[in-house]
Design goal:
Strand content: 25-35%
Oligomer: single chain
Structural class: alpha+beta
Number of helices: 15
Shape: globular
Length: 521
């Protein structure tokens, strides 16, 4: 990068510079910053919160989603979005490109980073005609929800924009509705949510479900853009408002109903009766001050509760879906681990692969006359193998969620009742799990091996090298064998065998640890 000096540098950020790594400043105070490329907002950040300390200052790195666009020349302006004050300006060249940097999609439409750090078509780049179908859909969906006995209202960023500004928030990219059910039990509100989905489908809307209590309606804007209208279910229980997404706070129903109204883009829509209390519960007491870099800080207890009630079957699945989509053309080959296990255990009658992926090991074992079961969190991974082997009585695939204890217990008990000597393996799964997920994996293996003398065969990345092995297996980080051994002991098991080996001839090869874990029966 080299600076082109014809634009004057501002004085709002001390020793500020824009470079290949990101944006640097020696300013010690917190500062909200809008980043504009050639006059258009692209991204917003908080200097201290989002930066890291480097050379006595702060570096805010370019977001991953933006980096592929940073090749060429661009006029960068850093501004305070609350006052409009220009804090710094600079013309820079990034990468090796000679043309102007444009952050657009394949159709040439402008993109910006939203609150989830995704490049999307935000509302500030759309005009009234573009968003008219979305406003119409909000009206229609509110009507549909009323037909099934609910009182829907604008929620989250849509409510914030309506109450504070009377318009859609420019840096937002979707619209949100909420409702508070008359039911107070999670099972009942889940059943109600599926009723709502069927109603919307009957109206002709295309609906995607986020979780058991949240769904997205796809709305086509005037130029064909697919815009999301999110519907978040909620309920009151023991004096607490639970609204899917972020909210679990002490609340009173009369603060929600009877609903009030607010104007959004010239239309009147329902909002909670006490909009101040509702928006304070959502965004904190400073909700009246715009913050395009706002990040939800949901308490861990709320996340845990919502995961257990409503979204246990979807957490993290999108990442695996992306990985298996990218690797779907790879040929199915049995792993070195399963080839060795089959050779060492000629009398095995049942094989179980926890985290079977595309099912290559399951198919390999079944071809040797052994009943083989593949368990995985992402059903699209093993879908092709399941179709090809649907008439094979030795092959069975089953959805299996290690993050959901009820699932772990039910599926593991099912396997445990099957007769005969068995092998249970898991490859490159434990590295991607939380501690709770790892303990659930050990619990599942223990249950499946109950009444046998067999061990659980576990393989994981113990050192991330400079070869392509981690990327090829969708692994982001290694797991220390000592840490895994501690968890094994915590789960009542013993590491019977532990071997480490390099996976390639690369001078900085990745290392894999293979463990055999047993439990006293």
């Amino acid at each position: 990068m080299r600076a082109l000096p014809h634009l004057a540098r501002g004085s709002g950020l001390s020793d500020c510079s824009v470079g290949e790594e990101g944006i640097r400043s020696s300013t010690s105070r917190e500062q909200l910053v809008d980043v504009r490329f050639d006059g258009r907002r692209i991204w917003s950040f908080w200097l201290q919160r989002d930066g890291v300390e480097v050379d006595g200052g702060r570096l805010v790195a370019w977001p991953k989603a933006l980096r592929s666009h940073l090749d060429g020349v661009v006029d960068v302006v850093l501004a305070d979005p609350t006052t409009g004050e220009e804090l710094h300006s600079e013309t820079v060249r990034l990468g090796s490109g000679e043309g102007r940097i444009t952050v657009v999609n394949a159709a040439g439409r402008p993109l910006a980073l939203d609150k989830s750090a995704k490049l999307v078509e935000t509302f500030d780049n759309r005009d009234a005609a573009h968003v008219e179908p979305l406003l119409k859909a909000i009206d229609e969906v509110i009507g549909a929800l009323r037909e099934v006995g609910l009182n829907p209202f604008l929620a989250y960023g849509t409510a914030l924009g309506a109450v504070r500004d009377g318009r859609l928030i420019g840096h937002d990219s979707d619209a949100d509705l909420g409702y508070v059910s008359a039911h107070d039990h999670p099972v009942d509100v889940i059943r109600e949510s599926f009723l709502i989905q069927r109603k919307l489908a009957d109206m002709g809307y295309r609906v995607t479900r986020y979780s058991a209590l949240a769904l997205q309606i796809h709305v086509e804007e005037s130029d064909g853009l697919d815009r999301g209208l999110d519907v978040f279910g909620g309920f009151m229980r023991d004096g607490t408002l639970y609204l899917m997404g972020e909210i679990a706070v002490p609340f009173e129903r009369e603060w929600i109903e009877p609903l009030g109204t607010a104007t959004l883009e010239g239309r009147e829509f329902p909002v909670p009766a006490d909009a101040d209390r509702f928006l304070t519960a959502t965004y904190g007491p400073g909700w009246r001050t715009p913050d395009p870099a706002y990040k939800f800080e949901t308490p861990a207890s709320t996340i845990t509760r919502f995961n257990g009630w409503f979204r246990g079957m979807r957490r993290g699945r999108a990442g695996w879906h992306g990985y298996f989509k990218k690797t779907r053309h790879r040929p199915l080959r049995p792993t070195r681990l399963v080839r060795q296990l089959v050779e060492d255990h000629p009398d095995v009658q049942l094989f179980v692969d926890i985290g079977c992926g595309r099912g290559s090991d399951v198919v390999h074992v079944a071809d040797r006359g052994v009943r083989a079961i593949g368990l995985d969190y992402q059903p699209s991974a093993y879908a092709k193998a399941a179709r090809q082997r649907r008439e094979d009585p030795l092959v069975e695939f089953q959805l299996f969620n290690l993050l959901e204890l009820r699932h772990v217990l039910a599926v593991s008990a099912w396997v445990a009742r099957m007769p005969g000597p068995r092998l249970v393996q898991s490859r490159h799964v434990v590295e991607r799990l939380s501690e709770r997920g790892r303990l659930n994996l050990l619990l599942a293996a223990r249950m499946m091996l109950a009444g046998t003398d067999e061990g659980f065969h576990l393989e994981f990345l113990s050192r991330r090298g400079r070869d392509r092995y981690p990327r090829r297996h969708g692994l982001r980080r290694a797991l220390a064998p000592a840490a895994m051994s501690e968890l094994v002991a915590q789960a009542g098991g013993t590491v019977v065998e532990s071997v480490r080996y390099d996976v390639s001839d690369h001078p900085r090869s990745s290392e894999v640890c293979r463990m055999v874990i047993g439990w006293k029966q």
